Write the C-alpha cells for this entry.
Amino acid sequence: MSSIRELARRCGVSVATVSRVFNTPEVVSQHTRQHVLAMAAEIGYLPNESARTLATKKSNMVGLVWDTDHRRPGWRHPFLQDILVALKSALSAQGLHLLMLAPDQSPGLPGDQRFLRAVQRHNVDGVVVIDNGSRDPAVLALVDAPVPCVALDLRFTGPTCTYITSDNAGGGRLAADHLIERGHRRIATITGPLPAWPAAQRLAGFRAGLAAANLPLAETAIAGGDWYLDSGYTAMNQLLTREPRPTAVFAAGDEMALGAMRAIHEAGLRIPGDIALVGFDDIEVAALVPPGLTTIAQDKTGIGTAAAEAMVAMLLDPATPPEPITLPTTLVIRGST
C-alpha cells in the first residue's frame, strides 16, 4: 500500500497538503483536491484512520448501546438483526462505522457512568441506543451527555437527542380491530415487558380498540412476556387455563406469538379454528410457519435508515437535533386469523 509521502511526491505537493485534502479539504483548492484524490485512487492510497482521528478529533465511529444483560438472548432477535443491518448499511454509505459498546466495568465506577465512560474511551462521534426494556441509569445518562444520541423506541429528547419509533399504539389498535372484524369477542393479549414504552403503547392501542367496540379487557385476559419465544409459550399456557378461554390472542411480538402457537398446538387446539392469533413485527419466519402468522408489520429497514440519517444530521449540525420520527405500522393478514 502506498504511503502519504509517495502520494505527495507523485502529486508534486507537500505531505501537509495531502493531509489537508483528507482532513480539512475546505482549505485546499478544488483543483488540488481533485488532483490528489485522483492520484490516491490510481495508486491505491488509503489515509491512516488513526492519524485522521488525531488530526480531526473525529473517529467516524458511531457507538451502539443495547444492554440486554447476560441472561437475555437479545442479540439474536430477528427484529433487531434487521434493524442493525439497515443501520450499518446507511451509516457505511456516509463513511461512518458502527461500534458495539460494552459497558465499562472498571472497579469503583458509578453505575450510571458505565456507558458514558465507554463512549469517552472509544471517542465515538455519536451513539445509537436501542431499547432494552429497562430503565437502566447507565443508558438514561446518555440523554444528558454532550455526544449526539439517537434512540430507538425510547423517548430520548434533549439538546443532543432524538428518537425513532413505530406507531406502536396504532399497531395495537389494528390488531384489535382485525380480530373484532373476524367476529371475536373473547380476546386476550400477551404483552411485552411492561412498562417498556413500546409494550405499553401496544397494550394501550389494543385496549382502546376493544373499548371502542364495548369490549373491556379483563385483567385475566392479560399475560406478560419479554419479547422472546419461551415467554410467549408460558403466557399462552396461562391464558389457556383461565375462564372463559379466549378465542383470539394478540401477542405484542412475533417471537412471543410463535411461542404461543406452540402452546396452542400442544393443547390440541387449532389455529385459527379454536384460537386466532396476531403478532407484531413481521419477522421473516412469520410468513413461513404453518399457518402463516397474521401480524402488525414494522418498517425495520426504515427504522435503521432513519436512525442513521438522524445521526448524520446531528453530526453536521449538533446544535439542532432532528424532530422525533414515528413510522407507520401495517396489518399483514395470513392464515392464523
